[in-house]
C-alpha cells in the first residue's frame, strides 16, 4: 500500500463517500453540514469519519475503513490525524462495544449515558432501543507530561 494522506474531504466529493458507505456501511450517509475526514492514497479513499456539530459539541460518527485495509492501523492513523478537529470542542462518540479499545487508544474514555449532554443522551437511547450495542465515550485530552527536564 502506498502512503496515505489524511485530510478534510472537499464537499464536491461527498458522493464518493456515500458510495463507500452504501457498499460497506449502509447505515452511514454523509450530510452537507458534517465535516468528513478521509484517508486516501493516490488511487482511492480507504477510510473516513464524520463529525456532526450539535450545539457546541462534536459527535464523531460513521468511522469506516474499507475491509481489505482493516487491522493494519489505519483507523488509529485517521483518528490521530483528526485531533486538531477533535480538540476544538467537546467530542463524543458512540462506539460499538468491540471498538471501545480502539477509541481508548485515541484518548476517548467510556462514560455513563447520564454524563452525555441531553441532546446526545436522547440520541443514544434511540439507537440502543433499536438494538445497537453502543458505548458512550468522550474525548479526554491527555494531561501535559509532568517531566521537569
TrEMBL record:
Any one GO MF annotation of this record: acyltransferase activity, transferring groups other than amino-acyl groups
Residue ranges annotated for the N-acetyltransferase domain, each copy included: 1-142
CDD domains given in the database record: NAT_SF
Pfam families to which the protein is assigned, alphabetical: Acetyltransf_7 (PF13508)
PROSITE patterns on file: GNAT
Cited InterPro entries: Acyl_CoA_acyltransferase, GNAT_dom
Coiled-coil residue windows: none
UniProtKB keywords: Acyltransferase, Transferase
Gene3D superfamilies with a match to the protein in the record: 3.40.630.30
Protein name: Acyltransferase
Amino acid at each position: 500500500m502506498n502512503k496515505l494522506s489524511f485530510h478534510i474531504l472537499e464537499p464536491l466529493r461527498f458522493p464518493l463517500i456515500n458510495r463507500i458507505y452504501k457498499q460497506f456501511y449502509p447505515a452511514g450517509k454523509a450530510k452537507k453540514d458534517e465535516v468528513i475526514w478521509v484517508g486516501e492514497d493516490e488511487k482511492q479513499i480507504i477510510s473516513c469519519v464524520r463529525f456532526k456539530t450539535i450545539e457546541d459539541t462534536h459527535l464523531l460518527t460513521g468511522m469506516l475503513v474499507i475491509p481489505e485495509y482493516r487491522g493494519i492501523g489505519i483507523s488509529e492513523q485517521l483518528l490521530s490525524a483528526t485531533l486538531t478537529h477533535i480538540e476544538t470542542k467537546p467530542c463524543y462518540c458512540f462506539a460499538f462495544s468491540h471498538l471501545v479499545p480502539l477509541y481508548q487508544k485515541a484518548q476517548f474514555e467510556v462514560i455513563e449515558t447520564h454524563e452525555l449532554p441531553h441532546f446526545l443522551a436522547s440520541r443514544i437511547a434511540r439507537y440502543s432501543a433499536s438494538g445497537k450495542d453502543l458505548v458512550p465515550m468522550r474525548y479526554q485530552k491527555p494531561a501535559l507530561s509532568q517531566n521537569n527536564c
